[in-house]
Amino acid sequence: MDLLNTLVDKGLRRELPTREEALAVLATSDDDVLDVVAAAGKVRRHWFGRRVKLNYLVNLKSGLCPEDCSYCSQRLGSTAGILKYTWLKPDEASQAAAAGLAGGAKRVCLVASGRGPTDRDVDRVSETIRAIKDGNEGVEVCACLGLLSDGQAERLREAGADAYNHNLNTSESTYGEITTTHTYADRVDTVQKAHAAGLSACSGLIAGMGETDEDLVDVVFSLRALDPDSVPVNFLIPVEGTPLAKEWNLTPQRCLRILAMVRFVCPDAEVRIAGGREVHLRTLQPLALHLANSIFLGDYLTTEGQAGKADLEMIADAGFEVEGAGEITLPEHRVTAGGGCGSPEGAGGCGSHESAGCGSHEGGGVCGTASAAAAALADNEPRTDLVAVRRRGAGTDLAPNA
After folding, report:
1. pTM for the predicted model, two decimal places
2. For this structure, is 266 an active site residue?
3. Extended strands (E) in 25-72
4. Is 72 labeled as catalytic in the residue annotation?
5. 65 is a catalytic site residue
6. For residue range 79-133, what is the model confidence (pLDDT) as tens digits?
7. Which residue of the set 142, 255, 266, 367 is catalytic?
8. Pairing relation of β-strands 230-235 and 270-273?
9. Per-residue pLDDT reduced to its tens digit, 270-282
10. Which of 339, 255, 256, 350 has the alpha carbon at shortest distance from 301?
11. Which helix (H) or strand (E) holds 200?
């Protein structure tokens, strides 16, 4: 296919595809999906080999958020039965992080619900960052605390933070349909503040909220212009009790095409499969490793993820290897130049939306019974059997999944 050959050549040169080419990737048929994966896989392997970076989320403060993001189970007005708790103490957060690090994670993502941190909140998180770093040599720490005020990114950097996550989520033209309590421009400003402070910028999207192909291309092109080192791709989990609970718009093939498009547009960025991979990619998750070079290990913020052991087995069975703590994730030109989501000029973490995941309480790979899953597949029904609210790990007395 001429389109794919062209995109591979551009990806190897870090050249931006045209919007028409990006749209054409999303428009390919299910019959062509393996060809799309194979082509994007060449670009992924060129820049990242067969390494898979593992990241681990710690939800520092859960629920009771004043913002009205429609996708989020922690939002204002949410009736989702999620865990609700205030700030974890530094030692509690450090203990939670230890489980992910023991499972092979090299980055810990510290997340807190809310519009943005107060200066006191920055102090709390700074203490937590130091506690984690003091006990784990070489660990990367990414903070995700919402909208940043002037000077806060610098303070997090001084405390030892390596990265800051703040996702754009969707296109600027449709952002007001998803959230009304802050703007798209607010999100862009926070990513720019993080970058200016010397933090590795992490910013991505959520697919499956009813957006068009044009919306997806718009947000990914906007991300490339913002130049994050890391681009998490979330797939919406429609959690009961949120406005988007009925939005089941994704198939495994659609998810693969979205990941491929992101890889072609941001060829040398860390592309991370974030929330929702278990629910929407399902048994095609191993194929997605040919497109993305990073995943979250274990549970998400308010919902459960695939068992950590199953993640590690999947990576090995697919012929990939876990990236070691001593290995540098990004290509050398991005490390030395400080940027370039595909940008030849090098102009210039983490992130998972709040409603993602699947995994049994016993630590198995998939929620629900086999008969329920078979019935849902046969009738093409939403896979609500794959969504489980997190009841273990941070904020509970139960061991985390990692």
Report:
1. 0.91
2. no
3. 51-61
4. yes
5. yes
6. 888 889 999 999 999 999 999 999 999 999 999 999 999 999 999 999 999 999 9
7. 142
8. parallel
9. 999 999 999 999 9
10. 350
11. strand 200-202
